[in-house]
Amino acid sequence: MDWKVEGSAKKTDSRVLQEQEVILEDTGEDSISESFQLLQIDVECEHREGETPPTGGAVWSSKNVQRKQRHWEKIVAAKKSKRKQEKERRKTNRVENSGIYPQHSKRFLRSLTKERLLEAKHSGPRLCIDLSMTHHMSKKELSRLAGQIRRLYGSNKKADRPFWIYLTGFTTDSPLYEECLRMNDGFSSYLLDITKEDCFSLFPLETLVYLTPDSEHALEDIDLNKVYILGGLVDESIQKKVTFQKAREHSVKTARLPIQEYMVRCQNGKNYHSEILAINQVFDILATYFETQNWPEALKKGVSSRKGYILQNSVDDGQPKELQKAKVLEVP
Fold first, then answer.
1. Is the pTM of this model over 0.85?
2. Which of 26, 27, 131, 279 is the most exposed place for a label (fewest CB within 10 A)?
3. Where is this region: Disordered (predicted)?
């Protein structure tokens, strides 16, 4: 009879262990101890149900369950201790760095950002995103453009010297507006101007500078008296000179980023070189230059090596010139 009792006890303990694992997965760490107590009660009840008292094998199996229970309790205690130590470490770092990096509430930071943006509206540089060409764009291209607008606005909020942004040729019943609402949280609360008017009728033509990679003139500086225009165009078919021709039709000055003046072509597997950037990348360059007055630093911010360009001083002077020539191609 002893072997039957022992086998029954082992099956019971195996089932109890499985229940214990399920409970550990479904409950939080704070209720683990309570779960263990319930499991102990279950084990005791299982032994009391039979008329025959547990033999030595059953006692050994119960001790095995208790040993695993203690093991789990040690793991839980170690995790709690580790979290407590990490919390104390972060608290100590905040105290030590409070003089260097003062902590501000989110409410204060939002208020500061709003103040900077409103100040830019009256005295900062002005940037128009020309959205009058979106009617030919596909749903995928509209989604990409909406994402670029979100990233551009996010960068402007973080800038120490932000621009004031205009979204021109933009109607609230357009597919792009609906896409911006869908993709960009809080888009309707963005601190910028939205108008259905075209940028060419909104400002005097002599104050406009259309930024296009097809221009012959490199942008030298950012003039607070000028209004800079970026073409809000995502075109996977890569139609050339669309924004350049539009600027010429309205007799508006054009300029390109000084990529050719401060960067050189680098060799890559696809032999690909392009000065066409997303509007948020162009804005990152403009914003960085406006803060630093340094074109190389600004271009490094927005022109990735995937475009096939690197800064002129990025070439290692310690390398043999033959190797440098092999890596860098002359700009035609």
1. no
2. 26
3. 77-97
E strand spans, the chain: 126-130, 164-168, 193-194, 208-211, 227-231, 253-255, 263-266, 309-311, 328-329
Q: Render pLDDT for 175-193 as a digit per residue (tens, 0 to 9).
A: 999 999 999 888 989 999 9
Q: Residues 84-115, buried b or exposed e (16+ Cβ, 10 A)?
A: eeeeeeeeeeeeeeeeeeeeeeeeeeeeebee
CA neighbours within 13 Å on the CB side: how many for 39? 25
Say if CB 244 and CB 288 are below 8 A apart: no
Using CA atoms, how far apart are residues 26 and 300, in angstroms rounded to an integer?
50
Structural domain harbouring 178 = 106-257
CA–CA dist 202, 200 (Å, integer): 6
User: Could you tell me the CATH number of the domain that includes residue 195?
Assistant: 3.40.1280.30
- How many domains, in total, are found in the chain? 1
Using DSSP bridges, classify how beta strands 208-211 and 164-168 pair: parallel, antiparallel or unpaired: unpaired
Could you report the per-residue pLDDT of 208-239, keeping only the tens digit for each?
A: 999 999 999 999 999 999 999 999 988 655 56
How many angstroms separate the Cα of 325 from the Cα of each of 94, 227, 315?
A: 50, 40, 10
Tell me whether residue 91 is in a domain: no
